[in-house]
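Hey, can you fold this one?
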Amino acid sequence: MFLHVVGRGTSFRDVEERYQHSGETVFRYFRAVLNAFTALIPKYIKLPSTEIPFAISAFTKNYPFFKDCIGAVDGTHIAVKVPKEETAAYRNRKGFLSQNVMACCDLDNLVFTFVLAGWEGSAHDGLVFNKAFEHGFTIPEGKYYLGDAGYPLTPYCLTPCRGVRYHLNEWLKGNQRYILHYCNLLSCE
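Sure. Predicted structure:
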């Protein structure tokens, strides 16, 4: 019943009719599942810390440059079913119906610090990011998140410069080095 209400956005009255239960029963079960999810929040969602993450401070190639970074932000598309009259808004650029979900995580534990779901699949990542501030998303003064090119370049979100192909030669050499090392390990056995 909970998934029916949350996933489809139907009313309690529709759920009462579909599952043949009273409104009080539907509400009681809905509330019980909602309370269970609320109890899981401290375990799976952690508010961002203002301390420098260990993943940044432990490495000299990261520390002086990313000392104010508190995490990473990215979006994903999750397939949905919507009423026929809403299909145009939920059709994403790849052609299937989805909702755009924005998620932020910290750099040390990779624990979610914020999740915003429910936006239409046609909504751009930048729009979802900007609207997240209206839904309780906050970033401490002087701190920022790392995002991909779909997010706005702002003082609180650092994104790659458009049109720049970052260090492709270095990545290629790095992959070859690991492949050669792996081959050497195999030949030693």
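The helical segments are 2-8, 12-19, 23-44, 54-57, 63-66, 87-90, 125-132, 168-188. Let me know if you want another pass with a different chain boundary.
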